[in-house]
UniProtKB/TrEMBL annotation:
Keywords: Ribonucleoprotein, Ribosomal protein, RNA-binding, rRNA-binding. It comes from Carbonactinospora thermoautotrophica. NCBIfam families: rplD_bact (TIGR03953). The keyword Ribosomal protein applies. Belongs to the universal ribosomal protein uL4 family. Coiled coil: none annotated. GO terms for biological process: translation. It comes from the Bacteria. GO terms for cellular component: ribonucleoprotein complex; ribosome. This is Large ribosomal subunit protein uL4. Part of the 50S ribosomal subunit. One of its GO terms (molecular function) is structural constituent of ribosome.
Length: 230
């Protein structure tokens, strides 16, 4: 079991955390990761594309010219696919692109992706990004740059950590995500994965289960839901 230093916003080491071997040191199954990522991207497709067949295009009810004697090929409608303005042959129609992916496969792929990042020293843990109680994008970016200079960074933050959300949400190189939303695709497209210490502990302890589970929404999410209701 390897360890990672916990850094303060100033870049000072404040402690260490252990990376559980069952999550950050497993066998990396590349075909499995590929399958899960493809399924995730497929599920994100809207599938609302639609084209009209010759039966759906308006017009063309009259036969353009007589069947015989013209020297040309027989035609029954100017809305046939070979005519300009005609219908589309075998065009896309609305469909669902979702692929069935068992939960165990998703979990194994996520562990493999995190293992790859951990083995290359690209998993970081910080006590926090901001010192004080006032959000600051500038201070958040400075704290992040003390960890890595890479272009794409995945930051895992607890939902109720409003200070970090407000400080980092406008940075184009940062993708913010809650511990229970961590997924294979976001890990693979990011150069580094940065956990806040609280989010790391929440992630390795697993999602709460059972009848006693209660969802906790951030203040901004509550505000958005209230505006939508009005």
């Amino acid at each position: 079991m390897s360890t990672v230093n916990v850094l303060s916003p100033a870049g000072e080491i404040t402690g260490t955390v252990e990376l559980p071997a069952e999550i950050f040191d497993v066998q990396v199954n590349v075909p499995l990761i590929h399958q899960v990522v493809v399924a995730q991207l497929a599920a994100a497709r809207q599938g609302t594309h639609d084209t009209k067949t010759r039966g759906e295009v308006s017009g063309g009810g009259k036969k353009p010219y007589r069947q015989k004697g013209t020297g040309r090929a027989r035609q029954g409608s100017i809305r046939a696919p070979q005519f300009t303005g005609g219908g589309t042959v075998h065009g896309p129609t609305p469909r669902n692109y979702e692929q069935r992916t068992p939960k165990k496969m998703k979990a194994a792929a996520l562990r493999g992706a995190l293992t790859d990042r951990a083995r290359n020293g690209r998993v970081h843990v910080v006590s926090s990004f901001i010192e004080g109680d006032v959000p600051s994008t500038k201070a958040g970016l400075q704290a992040l740059r003390r960890l890595t200079e890479r272009k794409h960074v995945l930051v895992v933050v607890e939902r109720d950590d409003e200070l970090t959300w407000k400080s980092l949400r406008n940075l184009p190189e940062v993708h913010l995500i809650a511990p229970d939303q961590l997924n294979t695709y976001d890990v693979m497209v990011s150069d580094d994965v940065v956990f806040t210490e609280a989010a790391f502990q929440r992630f390795i302890s697993g999602s709460p289960k059972g009848k006693s589970v209660t969802a906790v929404a951030r203040e901004s999410e509550v505000a958005e839901s209230e505006e939508a209701a009005q």
